[in-house]
Amino acid sequence: xxxxxxxxxxxxxPKAALAADLQDEKQRSQIILNAIDDGVTLIAPDGTIQMFNxxxxxxxxxxxxxxxxxxxxxVFKLVNEKNEEYPDQKNPFIQVFNSPxxxxxxxxxxxxxxxxxxxxxxxxxPLTDPQGNHTAVVAIFRDVTKERQEEKQRAxxxxxxxxxxxxxxxxxEGYLALAMNNKVATIDxxxxxxxxxxxxxxxxxxxxxxxxxxxxxxxxxxxxxxxxAVEIGAFLESLAGDLKxxxxxxxxxMEFVLGSSDTIDATNTRNVVKxxxxxxxxxxxxxxVVTNIFDNGxxxxxxxxxxxxxxxxxxxxxxxxxxxxxxxPAEDIGHLFQKFYRVDNSATRTIGGTGLGLFICRKIVELxxxxxxxxxxxxxxxxxxxxxxxxxxxxxxxxxxxxxxQTSVESLQAAAASVVQ
Length: 421
Ligand code: ADP
What we know:
By secondary structure, this protein is an alpha+beta fold. 48% of the residues lie in helices and 21% in strands.
């Protein structure tokens, strides 16, 4: 008999060691899962919850022994900020079971067991076997209440500060304008050149505060918006005059293209029925967006042309602005719509700007379920596109009827209130 005893013992020892190792491994994983602050859960392909760590218990309010074995729908009730249930096509839990890709959602709210809505950051990763079949889904989620509160405080601070600072800046701008007006003040030409510079900087500061205020509002959903049915052809036509003026002031040509050439017969417009492209937006907000993009085209283009146009199909209305300016490098294109992003080149360093315009444009376009993006080739110019969901003429007329009914109710209420007073 050897030192280890009989043959049976010889295999038993490594087996025991392996079992101990596995046990160790499991314990280590368990310790980690128990210690982390993020909720971690494992969901089987049949939708049942297989594992629920203590942080998941603390966030959802579901005890682990109750949650385990339940279908995920019972525990993970996702709602949006208006407390509306997520539709299936937006629900990342449903999406992830049909996809090899992981899903993230930072805007969801989780309705807890006690029916409390808490903001969460959620990440879902599908686990697949070599054949690509789902073997499980790992969900990791975090309560972001504190982060949201801090974000809100920051945004409140920015909007209060920019609101308060706009007033004195407007006063300075006004006094500078008075000082520069030769009907009310007498100054020499040197002082005038200083004042002109001060006036330009003050205007820039005023615009910066205005943009900061708008972007803070856009971020926390306080941007006022009264969406109505708008026919984009007529809308752009009425805007084109002002835009043409700003282009021509800089010596640039302005072109306005309504629809593709096969939809509009320029020689015989009276006999051709122009298609009506309706969408549901706040016209003041959309005007801000189009003006901003067009003004950028003018601002960054030295010679040539800025084109404003519209096209579309049965689902989409597309507005575009194209210029013959310097273009935008490919590596910057993806960042243009981020806050404070400015392309760092000699042109932008000399041309003033806040880097907030396109960020605000994106926020506004997204408010109406639209998309905004840019395409460009350096040296050849840039094109900006806005896609908005198209509504039918019948839907637009229905909306207009509701709007006018609402307006008459409001004017009746106002009239009644004035009689009572
Ligand atoms: P800004 O106030 O700097 O113009 P925007 O957010 O409107 O801020 O634009 C972000 C950046 O995108 C600009 O600083 C500029 O570098 C680039 N950009 C925007 N429009 C154009 C354009 N038509 N041609 C070239 N560059 C552009």
